[in-house]
User: What shape does this take?
Amino acid sequence: MKGDGDVAADPVKARELFEAATRRGNAIGYMELARGYLDGGFGAKDIEQAFRNALFAEAGRVKDAEALVAEISVQLSLDRQEAIRTEVKTFLDQNGL
Assistant: This one.
């Protein structure tokens, strides 16, 4: 995300790598995606994507994911929270983590 030394910051590539990690079963990738979307690290802030990914991180029992879910949830209406929770639950029921 931030680059280091001779490596330039590349938020787009970072997002792609975090997404690839989640497809391989790495739940920590969901936490990094949630933070990136929450902070606008991938471009514009996307609270719904942040919440969605935080829920996946929570399902994967990632440390501090529950607190991040709580932090993000106050930024969404109860209707949107419920819709996203239902979407995530359906995905997990059908595919697992």
